[in-house]
Amino acid sequence: MPVMKKQLRDVPGGPPALGPYSLGVVAEGRFVFVSGMTPWDPTTGKIERGSIARQTELVLENIKKVLSAAGAGFENVVSSRVYLSDLTLENFKEMNGVYARYFGESAPARATIGAQLLGFDVEIECVANLLD
Predict the structure, then answer these.
(1) Residue 14 has what pLDDT?
(2) How far, rounded to the nearest angstrom, does the alpha carbon of residue 7 sit from its chain's CA centroid?
(3) Distances from the Cα of 118 to the Cα of 39, 41, 65, 92, 107, angstroms
(4) 96: helix, coil or strand?
(5) Residue-number span of the structural domain to which 120 is assigned
(6) Averaged pLDDT in 10-residue chunks for the chain of 132 residues
(7) Which of 40, 45, 89, 44 is nearest to 66 (CA)?
(8) Of residues 41, 53, 49, the one with CA closest to residue 95
(9) Which of 52, 66, 110, 114 is the S-S candidate for 94 at Cβ 3.0 to 4.6 Å?
């Protein structure tokens, strides 16, 4: 049986999909899989560098837009992966402080991974349940 899915390629105010991928995919009307979001700034139209905190805010704002387009919010996220280009205790604490503000008490399962990122320092992907 084919999987029913809706691809989210264009999200109002969200970053553009710059390659052969969707910003998010709603599968079976139950889950939205959000691609790894980068610190793309809608005011400049570019990926922004800067502090880990600022990059994390931009990333989470982009995730918020994709979740909203799918009919979800941070409270619906069940799993996330955070990628940091330089996984140090300082960078982790800076990212984690911003992350905690966005997720509050609805903290999903999470992994934080050191990764070689291209031109930015924070990337986050997640899966949200649409049935809550």
Answers:
(1) 86
(2) 16
(3) 12, 16, 23, 19, 27
(4) helix
(5) 5-129
(6) 70 84 85 96 94 98 96 96 98 98 95 96 97 67
(7) 40
(8) 53
(9) 52
Which residues share a beta bridge with 114? 84
Residue 25 has what pLDDT?
Answer: 86
Nearest CA-CA partner of 81 in 38, 126, 128, 114: 126
Residue 98 CA to residue 81 CA, distance in Å, equals: 15
Number of domains in the chain: 1
CB 129 within 8 A of CB 27: no
Please report, for the domain that includes residue 90, its CATH number. 3.30.1330.40
Cβ-based burial of 118 (10 A; exposed 0-12, middle 13-18, buried ≥19) = exposed
Spatial distance between the Cα atoms of 58 and 40, rounded to a whole number of angstroms: 6
For residues 27 and 23, give the distance between their C-alpha atoms in angstroms, rounded to a whole number.
Answer: 13
**Looking at the DSSP assignment, which residues form a beta bridge with residue 25?**
7, 33
Residue with tokens 């600022």: 54
Residue-level pLDDT at 2? 59
The whole-number pLDDT of residue 3 equals: 59
